[in-house]
## 1
Amino acid sequence: MKQVDWFKNSIIYHILIDRFAGFRSKKNWDQPKFLGGNIRGIIDNLSYLKNLGINVIWISPFYKTTEYHGYHIKINNKVI
């Protein structure tokens, strides 16, 4: 199954966007509050990830959300 060969040699790094990079203050980093991490923060750190040997990144959802981790997707003022 050549379709999954890429996965067998992958080193995957999961990124919670809000926590990875792009925010100014590290205050409350351990609290369930938004810090402001963003996609630009990830882009700016791609060489760092490459130097770690990471060749696949798994990014948390980036929809409108009620929680910093992005997994409480909000549509029409309802969390789904």
## 2
Amino acid sequence: MSDSLAVSRKVLSVLIKLNLLMGLFILALLIASLLAEGPVMAGLGMRPSPGGPTVILGMRAIMVIGILGVPLAHVVLTRLKAIVETVSIGDPFVAINAARLQTIAWAVLVLELMNFAVGTVAQNISSKAHPVDIRWNFTVTPWLVVLLLFVLARVFDQGARMRADLEGTV
């Protein structure tokens, strides 16, 4: 196996664990915000004032979106790791990899929609009294990545079919 594939496999393994850890952290933060709202929100920079409850609900909504993103990121990372495995054994153009890429594309699309939702929530709850600065901005790059993933899934599917046809004629 090439060094880059070995590194990719290790990096993906670490990212899978970090993703799950981040999900647990966000879940703990959400639970803590429900059990000890005052101290948690103060720790997040919230000061008591009019409009605060709306901001707190928005922050919790962002936490929920973050928690919901964890399984989607897990899907992306585990499917990508499985593709790396097939590449390492020298057999990447198989139908299962086309399906994996398509699943990754759908997951990334939903993650990007969730990212947009986070930006929308943050923009709607932010005020001078309660600035919510998550440094969100719209960029076209992730949407192009989604398109690229759908195209690559189709390329892998065609490659697998052509390979099967070729094997059937030999």
## 3
Amino acid sequence: MQTYILLIKLTEQGIKDIKNAPKRIELATQSLEAMGGMMIGVYAVMGEYDYVAIGEAPSDEVAMRFLLGLGALGNARTTTLKAFKKEEFVGIVKKMP
């Protein structure tokens, strides 16, 4: 599984309907799981972003499909970072010339 860190900002639509945000988060989590992924954690944060989420997906294609679907709902915009676990990073560095 590939790991992704999502930096999420609510849109004007999303903040106007903030009371339904917990349900939207649950539905997004279920959507990712239905695609074969897993949401490791979702955090409401203060600062430039409204949420930070950490998730896993079986491929970049699945992650992209999930993110496009999330954005199409119009409640949030994401910045996504592909993350590498420590063990993956060590393996990458070991293969360097």
